[in-house]
Amino acid sequence: MPALALLRAALRRTRPNPDPSTPPPPTRLTTTRAPDPAHLAAYQRVCGFDAACDDVLPLTYPHVLAFPPTMRLMTARDFPLPLLGLVHTSIEVDQYRPIRPAEELRLTVRTTALARHRRGTEATLLTEATSPDGALLWQSRSTYLARHKTAQSASTSAPDTAPTPAPAPAPAPGEKTWELHAGLGRRYAAVSGDRNPIHLHALTARPFGFPRAIAHGMWTAARCLAEQGQGQGQGQGQQGIHTRIEFRAPVPLPTTVTYSTPTPQTFELRSPQGKLHLTGVTGPTDAPP
């Protein structure tokens, strides 16, 4: 997040709580980008993708390519939510065919909906990646939560975005444990451009209700998909891919998390105490709309 964007976002913190009944702004931003090989390699390293399988882009990489127009959209005067402290709560991705690293993509971002959330207001952003001839190759729908007092949240100040789940089931075969270090948020920020203070350091996360920095939702999503082999040559073939990921509770840094696959099409990320951080499902997608 550039310094100017941070300043603009800080100024927007003084605005009153957003009204979820307000129609989404009509702003639509577009850019054209092709992956930079060095940047792509750095992203693969941070997120755990196999750099040897670099014949197609990771499934989550267009989200990073679209980050500059997304940031302009979210810092624009008509964007209804304050940027600082915004929490990514879900992402749904449809990729209609593998995207090669040398391909040029036309990326478009817009806000499609506002909705009430028990902890505040959520905005849905639609991102589309098309080929130079206009064919839709990839699209995502992300929800972002601005936390503020509501009738449901007035009695609690916990930073989680979902209720505390039941204890974790017994360990499953193939379960893996990951040690996440304190600097992970800064490492991912360097390759993604997302320098939201809640991800960088405990001192910058505390003003937004988090006792420690939290991992980027998109890092946890990418790391899980990399473990599945989705989004690269070993996972895609020529078939389109659909995935939906729910960020159920923040992942504090540093910490230990456990990745598991209850079924071949689903995956989870939990704390050692069984707290559910993330759920995901993957499968084939329909034809592009």
For the termini, the CA-CA separation is 32 Å
Main β-sheet, spatial strand arrangement: 1-3-4-5-2-7-10-9-8-6
Overall radius of gyration: 18 Å
Name the CATH class. Answer: Alpha Beta
How do the helices and strands follow one another from N- to C-terminus? HEHHHEEEEEHHHHEEEE
User: Which band does the percent of strand residues land in?
Assistant: 25-35%
Give the biggest beta sheet.
10 strands, antiparallel
How many β-strand stretches? Answer: 10
Q: From the coordinates shown, what is the CATH architecture?
A: Roll
Instruction: Briefly note the structural class of the backbone.
Output: alpha+beta
| Percent of residues in helices | 10-25%
Write a structural description:
The structure is a single chain. The chain is of the alpha+beta class. 22% of the residues lie in helices and 30% in strands. Helix 2 runs antiparallel to helix 5. About 4% of the residues have low confidence.
Describe the structure concisely.
Helix content is 22%, strand content 30%. The protein is an alpha+beta fold. The chain contains eight helices and ten strands.
